[in-house]
């Protein structure tokens, strides 16, 4: 595909969105679960939704699926607004939300048959085959005849995944899919996500397991305290978040004052400094250091993983809040 | 599509262990009644039932199904209806399966109709089952010489079966009306027991309130007030006044229950 036509580059980004939310807000009584969430889920992406417990991941997902009505804001799912377009868009969406939900007195297979009976896109004749395929796909063939009551946590999770994959989906939403799975099961989930991605489906995975997201996702959205604090392509985010330089120098004092004059933020770390590259670049930093009379022995680009990015995004705000809390306390004393 | 959903719903209800146990319990009622009257009449006590209906039971097995349903309508059948209504929405919410249905998607109004259909089909099934077992047990224990009515006339077997059929429909309708109100309660909670407790408490409180003549003005609004009048199917010819009133009242409960459930379900977060 080439962009030789005069069509602007922004056009595809406008249409090729599997789901989008604008100014989403949900209040439960007096608590605000989610606020000002503008989420964009590009078509064909595997979006990892990260956030600490209680950051609003599940609430956002439930609103995306039309299970919960937003107090404010708009949702567009597969090109149709929710909840009006739910009957057109939801059949193409498979979901595993808030843990698998099944009837304990039915076997795994019977549970799936019941789910299948309510799938609008599944003709009656194909139900049986679809159920068997889904069971096979999640590796549950051995246990499909057993009652759900006796399933282990991992088996329940697999069955939930099977229900989400009963029909070929345009969008698959998985809320904490690896909960309760052993390492082998986790790998299988990764493979299933990779397969879905390869087949062109869009996947939304929420997780608090960072390695999980780093291994499977193309895009990331970080939620914190009910709002999106960062989103975008994983590689871009990591680059943006990881722009720091580790400088080994014996002249820490000189280096710090030189950088301060150049308005570059840095702090002492180990045998040298850690210099933030926001608004500057590595050569510029080294030039400043050398001109300021600091001997540079070594300068390494700081490689950030998702873990550090996540910690920075969620904890920085925590620190700010902490400070403002102190401020207000002082204010109150006066 | 909707027939497939109806089918799935009924199959799901029939697969529940508690449904099977409940149905088994229900068919015991006519058997016990037949047996009880048979032993009582052997001892020459003249039947244990209330005067009127009980008196015509002897040698009149065809009345057993009517008597059974009439008796069960006060407590047992509302209980069964409330259990089904409780499992239908609150139970599904509790197991997390309601989410699955809504995401499938089943529109919320349609889901309510699927549940209402399941409730109706199962109520009809349970009531018919009780009646059939009642006919068999009644004729086996008490024999049949046609069906003697409360008016003293005797109906042919065919006409008797027709009366039983009519009574089945009337009782089922009362049961569905109670179930619809229970569904409205069921849409507000994820604890099935709350639904059963609320429904049964209401039924019992209604029956107690029905005892106070100082509350005469209230009685026309209580669904339980309509129960005794249904026995008019056993008169010859059938006076339609009380039966009509009872059915109309149940219809109001059905509409109000369904309406409230729909309003709640459409705005519900799950």
Biggest pleated-sheet summary of chain B:
2 strands, antiparallel
Q: Could you report the average pLDDT of chain B, rounded to the nearest whole number?
A: 88
Biggest β-sheet: strands ordered side by side in the sheet of chain B: 1-2
Number of domains of chain B: 1
The shape of chain B, in one word, is globular
Number of strands of chain B: 2
What percent strand of chain B? Answer: under 5%
> What percent of the residues of chain A sit in helical stretches (DSSP H or I)?
25-40%
Task: Please sum up the structure shown.
The complex is a heterodimer of chains A (334) and B (270). Chain A has 334 residues and is α/β, with parallel strands linked by helices.
Task: Give a topology summary.
The complex is a heterodimer of chains A (334) and B (270).
Chain A: H1 10-15, E1 17-28, E2 31-37, E3 40-42, E4 46-50, H2 57-64, E5 72-77, E6 80-81, H3 86-89, E7 93-96, H4 108-117, H5 127-137, H6 153-164, E8 171-175, H7 183-198, E9 202-207, H8 210-216, E10 219-224, E11 227-233, H9 234-241, E12 244-248, H10 252-261, E13 266-269, E14 272-276, H11 282-291, E15 298-301, H12 306-333
Parallel strand pairs in A: 4-9, 4-10, 7-8, 8-9
Antiparallel strand pairs in A: 1-2, 1-3, 1-5, 5-6, 10-11, 12-14, 12-15, 13-14
Helix pairs in contact in A: 4-5, 5-6, 9-12, 10-11
Chain B: H1 2-15, H2 17-42, H3 63-72, H4 76-95, H5 97-103, H6 108-142, E1 147-148, E2 154-155, H7 157-186, H8 192-209, H9 240-267
Antiparallel strand pairs in B: 1-2
């Amino acid at each position: 595909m080439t962009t030789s036509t005069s069509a602007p580059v922004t056009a595809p980004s406008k249409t090729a969105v599997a789901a989008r939310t604008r100014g989403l807000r949900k209040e439960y009584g007096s608590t605000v679960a989610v606020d000002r969430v503008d989420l964009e889920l590009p078509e064909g992406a595997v979006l990892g939704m990260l956030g600490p417990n209680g950051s609003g991941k599940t609430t956002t997902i439930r609103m995306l699926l039309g299970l919960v009505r937003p107090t404010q804001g708009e949702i567009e799912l597969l090109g149709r607004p929710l909840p009006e377009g739910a009957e057109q868009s939801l059949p193409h969406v498979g979901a595993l939300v808030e843990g698998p939900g099944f009837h304990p007195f039915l076997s795994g297979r019977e549970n799936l048959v019941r789910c299948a009976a309510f799938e609008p896109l599944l003709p009656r004749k194909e139900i049986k085959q679809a159920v068997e395929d889904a069971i096979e796909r999640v590796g549950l063939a051995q246990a499909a005849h057993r009652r759900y009551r006796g399933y282990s946590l991992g088996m329940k999770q697999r069955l939930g995944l099977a229900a989400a994959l009963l029909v070929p989906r345009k969008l698959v939403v998985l809320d904490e899919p690896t909960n309760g799975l052993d390492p082998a099961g986790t790998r299988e989930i990764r493979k299933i996500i990779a397969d879905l991605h390869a087949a062109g489906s869009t996947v939304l995975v929420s997780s608090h397991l960072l390695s999980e997201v780093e291994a499977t996702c193309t895009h990331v959205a970080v939620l914190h305290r009910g709002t999106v604090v960062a989103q975008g392509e994983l590689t871009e985010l990591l680059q943006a978040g990881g722009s720091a330089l580790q400088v080994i120098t014996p002249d820490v004092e000189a280096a710090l004052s030189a950088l301060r004059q150049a308005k570059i933020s840095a702090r002492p770390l180990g045998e040298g400094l850690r210099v933030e590259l926001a608004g500057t670049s590595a050569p510029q930093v080294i030039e400043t250091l050398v001109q300021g009379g600091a001997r540079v022995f070594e300068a390494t680009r700081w490689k950030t993983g998702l873990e550090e990015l996540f910690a920075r995004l969620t904890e920085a705000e925590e620190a700010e809040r902490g400070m403002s809390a102190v401020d207000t306390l002082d204010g109150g004393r006066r | 599509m909707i027939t497939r959903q109806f089918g799935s719903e009924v199959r799901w209800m029939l697969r529940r262990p508690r449904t099977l146990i409940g149905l088994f319990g229900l068919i015991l009622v006519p058997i016990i009644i037949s047996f009880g009257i048979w032993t009582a009449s052997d001892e020459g006590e003249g039947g244990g039932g209330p005067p009127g209906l009980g008196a015509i039971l002897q040698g009149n097995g065809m009345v057993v199904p009517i008597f059974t349903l009439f008796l069960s309508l006060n407590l047992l059948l509302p209980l069964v209806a409330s259990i089904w209504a409780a499992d239908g929405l609150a139970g599904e919410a509790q197991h997390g399966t309601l989410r699955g249905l809504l995401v499938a998607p089943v529109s919320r109004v349609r889901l309510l109709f699927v549940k209402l259909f399941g409730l109706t089909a199962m109520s009809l099934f349970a009531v018919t089952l009780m009646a059939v077992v009642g006919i068999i047990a009644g004729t086996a224990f008490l024999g049949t010489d046609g069906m003697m009515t409360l008016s003293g006339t005797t109906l042919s077997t065919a006409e008797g079966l027709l009366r039983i059929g009519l009574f089945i429909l009337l009782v089922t309708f009362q049961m569905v009306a109670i179930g619809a109100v229970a569904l409205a309660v069921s849409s507000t909670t994820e604890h099935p027991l709350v639904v059963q407790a609320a429904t049964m408490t209401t039924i019992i409180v209604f029956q107690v309130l029905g005892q106070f003549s100082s509350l005469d003005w209230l009685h026309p609004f209580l669904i339980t007030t309509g129960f005794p009048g249904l026995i008019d199917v056993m008169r010859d010819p059938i006076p339609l006044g009380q039966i009509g009133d009872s059915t109309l009242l149940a219809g109001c409960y059905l509409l109000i229950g369904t309406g409230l459930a729909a309003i709640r379900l459409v705005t519900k977060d799950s």
